[in-house]
Structures are given as C-alpha cells and as structure tokens.
Fold BRCT domain-containing protein.
Amino acid sequence: MLTFETIFIDMDFTTIDFETAIGARWSICQVGLVRVESGKIVHRYSQLVKPPKNEYSNWNTNVHGIHALHTRNSPIFPEIWEDISPYIEGQLLVAHNAMFDVDCLEKTLKYYGLPVPMFSCDCTLKRIGGKLDKLCELYGVSLENHHEAIFDAIACAEIYLKLLKGEIEEGAHISDKEDNRVPFGNSEERLKGDILKKDLSQASPEDFFYDKKVVFTGVLKSIKRIDAAELVKKQGADIDTGISKRTNYVITGKKPGPSKMKQIEKYNAEGSEIIIMLEGEFLEKIGVHV
C-alpha cells in the first residue's frame, strides 16, 4: 500500500513508469522499471504488455505511439508480474507523478485478482515540481524518448539521485505555473468571428489543410491559437470550435478538453475518421520551425 516518505539518504530504490492503453488506470500497455542500489542503476526492465481486450484509444496512442498491433502478441500483466514484483514488494518505489503510476499498479493488480504488496513511495513531481522533460533539460539528464516507459523511468531515477545528493533543491519548481498548473483548454484564445469563415480564395488544393474541417483544443506551447488558426485558414481550412462527425483534424496542445476527446472516440467508433494531430506534427504541416 502507498505511503509517502521523506527520504534524503537512502540510495536504494526502484523507479517505475507505466503507459496506459485507454483512460482506465488498469489498462497498462508498457512497463519501464529501473533498480538503483548504492546510488547506481543495477537493473533495467522494459516490456510491452497486452492490455485487456488489447483495446486502445486514439488519444493514448498519440501520446506514446503504442497501438494494438504492437501488443497483440505481448504478455498480459500477470505474466510479467513475477519479473518485476521483487523490485517492488517491500521496496521504496519512486515515480514522477507517483499518484498516477502507483494507482495504475494497484488497479491493474486488482483487475487481475492479484494481491497488492506493501511498499513505500516517493514522488519527484511532489518533491521537486515541474514536468519530467523540463527537469531533464534543466539539470542535464538524458531523456531519449519521452513517454517511452523505460526512458522515463531512467530519467526519473537520475533526477531522484540528484535530489538525494542535494544537486536539486526540494520544491525548486513546485511554483512553475507553466509546468504544474496548465488549465483545460484556453478561454483567452477562444476562436470567433471571421477566422471561422472558410475562405479558399488564397489557398491551393495541394495545401495540407485545404477544405478540411479543423478544430483546436488545449494550449499550444509554441504558437498562439489565433496565429495557428490564421495559418491553417490560409491553407483553406474550415475551422470549427466544436467536434462533429465531419471533423477531419483536431489539433491538440496541453490538456485538451476532455469532452472533445470523448466526442472524437464516440464519432470514430461510429465510422468517422477524425485524426488527432499533436503540436509538433501540426507545426511541420504548416511549415513552422521552432
């Protein structure tokens, strides 16, 4: 069971990171685990896991890149539990946003009728604040592929070691509004007026978004929503503020609107082909380099 501890000198611990297939915490599809003893990484474990029914949501797949074809022949969680349980049971478990990863572990074990072991827990997000990729950038920690579980677990281990050694000050980034308190959507950038009127006069049929219905949701990091909307409008996009069965692309930033994401899943299940496009891919399509 989960208990948070303040531990400064213990250099033996296990870091974990889970990726999930759908919104349910019991839908683990990838495990990353790192064991640290005496301040050194001594064991790494990475495994794709077949989630229940091998079912994925488009949103989760767009975050981590894993889909049903990747895991159709992978073991289910009970088949790998004996490989990782020795590094968890009775150990100090560390994660970045441990409330998520520990909840995934406990709910998955309960889903399969397996007992939940005793362990203590610490959280780099709770102790330091900030997003994992930003912390790695600030403190010189390699993060080869964010949202691939093993790389996140390795990065978390190295960040935690720096905290234990006093190289990162506790609470240093808890007040970082950009990293810790990004709201759902962005009411200040709500699109309205002429930007919502389709205009093909300046566009070419060869433009990527030509005559495509486009919706924005979430907060874009690299460009203001209104600027992004103007760029796709020049390509002939028909910009909407809500999802419909005829929507072609949904451009997503940080914390996309939950109701919009549910609508996408619903309409796609009914036969629509709505494509979720993350900010990086979107910037490439409109020729913006940041």
Remarks:
- Strands lie at 13-20, 28-37, 40-48, 92-95, 120-123, 213-217, 238-240, 249-252, 275-278.
- Residues 187-285 form a domain with the Rossmann fold fold (CATH 3.40.50.10190).
- The longest strand covers residues 28-37.
- The chain has two domains: 13-164, 187-285.
